[in-house]
C-alpha cells in the first residue's frame, strides 16, 4: 500500500550518491608492505631498555660504593674523636664516644680510672678502615713511655640511631 503521494508506507535507506568525498562506512586500514620500520622501532626500544638496565646497575653500584665510603669516613671520625679525647686527658669526652654496651658495664668514673692507669697517648695515625660484618678502624698509637701499638677499634651503629660508637679495642 502506498501513501497519497505514491510513497511506500515504510521508509527505506537510500544508497549514498556516487562521487568525490563519499566513502564506504568501514575502510580497510592501509597495509605497510615494508616491515623495516617495525624492526627499527623494536631495535631502538631494545637499546633503550638495555641502556636503562645498565644505568640502573651503575647507579646502584655508585650508591653502594658511596655508602661504604661514607661509613668509613664516619667510623674514622668517631675513632679520631675518641683518641683525641684520650690524648687530651678528657676522659668524659672519650667516654661519650663509647657504645651503650660498654657503658652498661663501665661507669665514666671507672673508665677514667682505667685510662689514668694506662700510658698517656702522645700521637696516633689512623689506617684504612675495614668494612665487613663489623667496621674495624686500625690505628697506630704512640704512648708517652716511647712504646707504640697497633690498636683495632670496633665501631658499631647504636640501636635505634644513626650514630657510630666505639665498642671495643680488639
Automatic annotation (TrEMBL):
Superkingdom of origin: Bacteria
Biased composition (Pro residues): 14-28
Region (Disordered): 1-28
TM region positions: 38-63
Keyword terms, alphabetized: Membrane, Transmembrane, Transmembrane helix
Name under which the protein is recorded: DUF4878 domain-containing protein
The species this protein was found in: Planosporangium mesophilum
Amino acid at each position: 500500500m502506498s501513501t497519497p503521494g505514491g510513497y511506500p508506507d515504510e521508509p527505506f535507506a537510500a544508497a549514498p550518491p556516487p562521487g568525490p568525498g563519499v566513502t564506504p562506512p568501514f575502510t580497510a586500514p592501509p597495509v605497510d608492505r615494508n616491515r623495516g620500520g617495525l624492526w627499527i622501532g623494536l631495535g631502538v626500544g631494545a637499546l633503550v631498555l638495555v641502556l636503562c638496565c645498565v644505568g640502573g646497575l651503575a647507579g646502584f653500584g655508585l650508591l653502594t660504593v658511596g655508602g661504604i665510603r661514607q661509613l668509613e669516613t664516619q667510623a674514622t671520625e668517631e675513632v679520631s674523636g675518641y683518641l683525641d679525647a684520650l690524648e687530651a686527658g678528657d676522659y668524659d669526652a672519650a667516654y661519650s664516644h663509647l657504645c651503650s654496651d660498654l657503658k652498661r658495664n663501665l661507669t665514666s668514673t671507672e673508665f677514667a680510672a682505667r685510662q689514668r692507669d694506662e700510658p698517656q697517648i702522645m700521637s696516633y695515625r689512623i689506617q684504612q678502615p675495614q668494612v665487613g660484618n663489623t667496621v674495624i678502624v686500625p690505628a697506630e698509637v704512640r704512648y708517652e713511655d716511647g712504646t707504640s701499638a697497633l690498636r683495632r677499634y670496633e665501631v658499631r651503629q647504636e640501636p635505634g640511631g644513626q650514630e657510630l660508637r666505639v665498642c671495643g679495642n680488639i
